[in-house]
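Whether sequence alone determines local backbone shape is best considered at the level of individual chains. When preparing material for the folding task, we compiled for one chain both its residues and its backbone structure tokens. The sequence in question and its structure tokens are set out directly beneath this paragraph.
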Amino acid sequence: MYKKGQIFRRLYNGFLSDLYLDSEILTKTTNKRRTFMSAAMVLAGMYPPKDYQKWSDTETIWQPIPIYNDSPDHGTLFDERGKCLAFDFMMNKLFIQIGNLADENTTTLLSYLSEKCGQPITNTNIIRLDDLFLCQMAEGLPLPEWIKPYHIEKIKSISRNKKITRMCFENSRFQKIIIGSLLNEIGLNMESRSNNNDTRKMYLYSGHDISVAMAMSFLGNTNIDMPNFGASLHFHLYYDEINEYTIKVYFYDRWDNEKGIEVPISTCGNPCKFKDFKNILDNNFSGKFDDECQQLES
């Protein structure tokens, strides 16, 4: 993720100052250790200290930058039960459907993994194992000797099953509860900036792959895979005299990709005017987690 921060620096150098300025960027994360660490590493890559920001006489490549834990990204709901009972109920139904997709080879693999890991590995939590191995491989670290290449491929086929991801990512009710508040806040940030009520140039959110996937699905990009480690979604606000404020979205599919692809917003025009984009958000999301949870219950 440090390299991801260096890529951000190259992408936005000149738009963002070389020196860290609190007035230019605000960073938020969900209340998870891994997202805090990701945010810290990205910021370290973006803002290597210079001049007075070096706090040591020896070589310093890091400086403290505030990270706030009030991100409205609710991708954590998949790990934290009890915050929205209606969501828990829907997930239990989805888990039953996922379990029904298991074949004999899958059952054999899950039994093998459970034995080697010393804890139950199921269709519903194997995604964590997939993520762990993906991170290890990304860092060039060796995998356990009992994990072979064909195990990795089978694990991927289970955790990234197209039918399962579509049931999850393209579910509009899931989208409302997981990424509704986050997209609503992004829209409000842009609105504040367009009205000259905010001087910040960037809001950086350290969150979850499931949230990136759901946001892309909401924008109209269906049949997508689970994003790779370090994937990111970039919302850009532009201004020109003809169209005034417009929106473009770019997707970077992993931590070391320097060339993103533009993500079309299927329900918006081309160019997508900000006022139209904001209307789409307002018509789909309340922006309040409790309200979205209550609507799920109804």
Remarks:
- The beta strands are 25-29, 202-206, 232-240, 244-252, 261-263, 272-273.
- Residues 23 and 65 are 12 Å apart (CA to CA).
- The longest helix spans residues 172-194.
